[in-house]
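During the second year of the project, the team shifted from modelling isolated chains to modelling whole assemblies. The rationale, set out in the original proposal, was that interfaces cannot be judged from single-chain predictions alone. As a representative example for this report, we include one of the complexes processed in the last quarter. Its constituent sequences, exactly as entered into the pipeline, are reproduced here:
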Amino acid sequence: MLGHRWFVRAFRLGMRPRAFALVLLFALLPFSQASAHCFVGPRFFPATLVIDDPCVADEMALPTVDWFKTGTVPSGNQWDISVEFDKRITEDLGFGISDVWTQIRTPGGPVAVGFGNLETTLQYQLLKDASHETAMLLGLIVDWGGTGNVNAGIGSSYSMLTPTYYFGQGLGGLPDDLGFARPLAITGQIGYQIPTTSYLVSQNTYIPQVLVYGASLQYSMPYLKSEVKDLQLPDFVNHLIPIVEMQLFTPVTNNFGNPSITTGTVNPGVIYVGSYYQIGLEAIIPVNGASGNGIGVLGQFHLYLDDMFPKTLGQPLIGGTPTTPAKPQ
Amino acid sequence: MRKLIVLSLLLIAFGTGAAQAHAFLDHASPSVGSTVRSAPHEVTLSFTLNIEAASSNVQVTDSSGARVDEGKAQISGKTMRIGLKALKPGTYRVRWHVLSVDAHNAEGSFSFTVSGS
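Output from the structure prediction step:
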């Protein structure tokens, strides 16, 4: 995960030797027992495609690809290809970096192509309660102004900071009478996006502060098989997690002259969970005309670095702690 | 540049030792959530990976929380077994914890019912 993401970025930024050195460095890191990607007791929260999962982890989305028709008039075809790399610094502190390449073709207009702003995320794991299948996370997302293609309108000249709270809650604690509901889980996040500029002189536009929030509802077939009832379903089905995600953006302040409307998408789909990777496919359904036209599609290939490289890349950079196995009570 | 990318990816993929993953419960006997007519003499858990005997365990309790497992868990490769006392009709809970060979912890629990008829 780290390697590829850094390489993609590194080559673009002309830092090949540095990236290569990073890969070598992580290949030599020490080994200890790992607590894994987003496992909370028996619950596994997969990496969601639209919002973020509630755990720090060593993982890489490579790539995430989406297509949809924009909400502009006339509507354009937009393609996005993004990569994301997340690495634990300590057991509870994680760092992420991502970027996206975008192409927008608007009928009768120019083709806008380029990279978006570089995005980094610093996250701290507040809670992982195995007995209640609860996870909580705090994060600060920074969208670095001037690092994308500003001229094409894909990147912005200003930065944006989004302090964000994430949570995940499995419903495994439901009584046995509701056994088939126990594989359900809910995750969500809420953040407040603050631009570093409140007014863009060149475009005579106010830059609003925006509430960014979303949630997912997921049904874990692996959980059903191992915790509730083994229905002897085909192995492929036992690896699936049907999911509905939603992410919304609501301008809150400093929105003078802009339409004060919530935009966002609802994303039903499914995630296949393998041993070292997951593959997700979701539809993109805009919540209104300002959010897009028609139904788009979103796919992601995601690697669990802690499973792929438990002795090296899958370890926190600092203090990979030998965890004491929690024996059943 | 392309060669460097390929070289580096190969280094990541093959230069860091054998890759493993979390040990998931593959199947169990009695099976997860099942109802069996006659009382089983043992519980067998089969995982997707080899597990470490020293740090893996399983317990079986009845509806009052009393232990009904007997003896020490026997672990071999991907399989963990534990003997049971004579079970009466009722619902029993199996709680397991394993450490897979790549040092990943995993845990879970499930129920099975002895109908006795």
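DSSP finds four helices and 17 strands in chain A. Confidence is low (pLDDT under 50) at residues 1-35, 322-329 of chain A.
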